[in-house]
Amino acid sequence: MTDKPTLETRFERGLFASRWLMAPMYLGLVVALGMLTIVFVRELAYYAPKAFTMAYDEAILAVLTLIDLSLAANLLLIVLFSGYENFVSKLNIGNAEDRPDWMGKVDFSGLKMKLIASIVAISGIHLLKRFMELGNPGIPVSGDDGTLQWMVVIHLTFVISGVLLALMDWLASKTDKH
């Protein structure tokens, strides 16, 4: 059997090395995680002094806001770690005690499912916050009924998309591999 031509080998090596063009994007996600942390701390600093005087509904909305931000940060970490390990290079951090169990085990299909599940959760929390605003005259409602209807439609679209993605993955796992 003959070796590949030198030009083809160089091209393939260059093509494989091009995965490193993704590295700045993952670095950008680290910056985005820092931004979310700043927003989280700002929200916490805003709500914490009001804890002794805020009403139950306001407290729930404050907590939902913080949960929403932490879910978005979790989503960022999942995309950051899994994407980097799946598409660029394995993270060489040794046998760190605090290494999450899922790291190195989430393939593209698993990443896709975690992503849609996180989006559905974030959308659901945001929708719950809006519904709670409707029932509380002391909290200003942003948007109108049409906006809320669109939010429900979009949330249901996320849910249906998640179910369809899960169904496609399940069907793919049941078929013979080529």
**What's the total helix number?**
5
**How far apart are the first and last residues' alpha carbons, in Å?**
25 Å
Binned, the helix content reads over 70%
- Helix- and strand-based class? mainly alpha
Mean pLDDT: 84
Name the helix and strand elements from N-terminus to C-terminus, one letter apiece.
HHHHH
Sum up the overall morphology in one term.
extended
Low-confidence stretches: none
Strand content: under 5%
**How many β strands by DSSP?**
0
> Biggest sheet, open or closed, and with what strands and sense?
none
How many domains make up the coordinates? 1
**In angstroms, what is the radius of gyration?**
22 Å
Transmembrane segments: 20-40, 60-81, 148-172
Membrane topology: Multi-pass membrane protein
Protein name: UPF0114 protein GEU84_008590
Keywords: Cell membrane, Membrane, Transmembrane, Transmembrane helix
Explain this structure.
With 178 residues, the protein is mainly alpha-helical. It has one domain. The chain has five helices and no strands. Helix 3 packs antiparallel against helix 4. The protein is extended. InterPro entries: UPF0114, UPF0114_bac.
Q: How do the strands and helices of this protein lay out in sequence?
A:
Layout (H helix, E strand, L loop, with lengths): L5 H12 L5 H25 L8 H32 L20 H27 L10 H30 L4
Helix pairs in contact: 2-3, 3-4, 4-5
Organism: Fertoeibacter niger
Pfam families: UPF0114
Family: Belongs to the UPF0114 family.
